[in-house]
Write a structure and sequence with these properties.
single chain; four-stranded antiparallel β-sheet; 5 helices; 35% helix
């Protein structure tokens, strides 16, 4: 098996099968106790704790999050908003990016190549909230030339990289 080398790791650091097994288990359940994780991976608890700490310290584990039921939180409508810019001045693009990630209801902002410049995955409570998000938080920026909004019918998690 070929060892993986994420770019933020030191060149001498590699991930072995145990590291990958730990990562796969944590992706499935980030709340797993060290004892349960060690048992699942087949290593001593002290070894497991050391490995997890090393994975965090090296930046491979960037954080642990909770998946939320957006509908239960009053945000049943999801959409992808494509944003096309009329200007690509670096400072203006960075400023817009910083502002987009702070808009309430924005789940993810992707800065992309191609016809569009940003893709926003958003969750809102109503069609009117979606309209207001676009009009009050996106198209008000002078460098935004065009937006296109696509409703999301269903979301499924992908397999991931492991």
């Amino acid at each position: 098996m070929t060892a993986l080398r994420p770019k933020n790791l030191q060149p001498s650091t590699t991930l072995d099968g145990t590291d990958l097994a730990i990562l796969a288990a944590l992706v499935e359940d980030g709340r797993m106790t060290n004892a349960a994780l060690a048992a699942r991976v087949g290593v001593a608890e002290s070894t497991c704790a050391y490995r997890v700490r090393a994975l965090r310290d090296s930046g491979v584990i960037a954080g642990v999050t909770a998946r939320l039921n957006l509908g239960a939180l009053g945000h049943p409508i999801q959409a992808v908003i494509k944003v096309r810019l009329g200007s690509h001045d670096r400072e203006h693009v960075r400023d817009l990016y910083d502002q987009l990630v702070r808009v309430p209801g924005v789940l993810t902002v992707l800065h992309v190549a191609g016809e569009d410049d940003f893709h926003l995955h958003v969750a809102v409570g109503s069609p009117e909230n979606l309209r207001d998000m676009v009009l009050e938080h996106i198209t008000i920026h002078p460098i935004v030339r065009q937006t296109q909004t696509q409703l999301v019918f269903e979301v499924r998690e992908g397999r991931g990289v492991l």
